Amino acid sequence: MTVCVADLTLSPPVLLAPLAGITDLPFRQLVSRFGAGLVVSEMVASQEMVQASPGMREKAELGFTEGNTAVQLAGREAHWMAEAARMVEANGAAIIDINMGCPAKRVTSSGGAGASGSALMRDLDHALSLIEAVIGAVSIPVTLKTRLGWDASCLNAADLARRAEAAGVQMVTIHGRTRQQFYTGHADWAAIAEVKAAVGIPVIANGDIVDSTTARAALAASGADGVMVGRGAQGQPWLLARIASDLFGTDAPTVPRGAALVAMVSDHYEAMLEFYGPGLGNKMARKHLGWYLDHAGDPLGLRRRLLTETDTTEVLRLIADAFDTETQEAA
Question: Which of 45, 202, 70 shows the shortest CA–CA distance to 138?
Fold first, then answer.
C-alpha cells in the first residue's frame, strides 16, 4: 500500500510525527534507515526562521535534501508563512507541512498578530489565508496536520480539510483529539472517518498509535490511508518499519540486540554530539538513552550513571556495558 502526495509516493504509509526536541535530524535519519514513508521535521516558526541569522538557519538542519522529509512550518501571518515556504523550497525541501495541530499554550496564545497551531481551528478563514499563502508561494506539495477541533463544541476538522483540499493541500493528517484535550484521554480514531469521507486526498490517522495492534485498529476505525507514529517510536526507532511489515507486508526490520544495539545507540549518540556539539549534544541525548533503557532493560543498574555522566568518552563506554545484553546473558 502506498500514499501519493502529488507526484511523490510515500511507501510504506507509516509516517514519523514531528515531536519538539525529539525528532531532530539524527533521530529522523535513524528512523529513515529502518524504514518510514515520511519523516516530518520539528515544527519551525516561520517568522523566526526567515529573520534568523544564516548560522541559526544552518543549525536548524531541517534535512532539506532528504527525499522522505517534510519540513513543518507554523505561523500566524500569511506573509511570513509564504516567505518561509519559499526559503525551504529554495533549499531543496520536497514537501511542506503546515502545523495547525500544536496544542502548546506558547503557540496557541494570542500575540500581537494572533495565535497559531491548533488555535487556528477557531478561525478557519484565517487558517485558509495561511494555507493559500503557502500554496501560492511554492511549487512543491503542501500538506496539513491538525486536530479534530478546538474543543468538543468545535469539531470542524472535516470542514477545514475540505477547504484545505480545495485550496490545493495534497494530504491531511488528523490527530484524534481536540486541542483542549492536549494528550489526555484516548484518541478518537473513529472521528477521523468524517474527515476521510469529506475529502479525496489522502488522510493519515495520528494519536495513540504505539504498535502494530493500535495502528491496525486506527486504520480500521478511521478508514485512513496511513498512520503517523509519534511517542511510540521513542527508544525503538525500528517501530515504524515493524508496523509497516505487519500491516503492509514490507520487509521486517532486524531489531538490534547485543553488539548491534550497542553500535546503533553509540552511533545515534555520536551523531547528536556532532549535530549539537559535545556539551548540548550530551544533554539532548540523555532522554533518548533513557528511552533505549526502557525497552532494553537495565540489568546492571547503569541508568543513573549513564544519564548524568558528562564525559562523552565515558558515556560511550557505559553504553557498551548497558546495552550489550547478549554478553550479559552469556555471562
Answer: 70
- The b-or-e profile of 278-317 (16+ CB within 10 A means b, else e) is eeebbebbbebbebbbeebeeeeebeeebeebeebeebbe
Closest CA to 6 of 198, 132, 138, 159: 138
Distance in angstroms (rounded) separating the CA atoms of residues 220 and 58:
41
Q: What is the C-alpha separation between 57 and 48, in angstroms, rounded?
A: 10
Q: What residues are annotated to the active site?
A: 102
Of 37, 29, 35, the residue nearest 8 (C-alpha): 37
pTM over 0.90: yes
Which are the contacts of 79, defined by CB distance < 8 A and separation ≥ 6? Answer: 133
Alpha-carbon distance of 60 to 55, in angstroms, equals 9
- Whole-angstrom distance, CA of residue 199 vs CA of residue 193: 10
Q: Which residues of the chain have pLDDT under 70?
A: 53-61, 64-65, 67, 104-118, 326-331
Sign of CA dihedral 18, 23, 25, 30: negative
Q: What is the 3-state secondary structure (H, E, C) of 143-156?
A: EEEEEEECCCCCCC
Angle between helix 278-296 and 312-323 (nearest 10): 10
H or E stretch covering 291:
helix 278-296
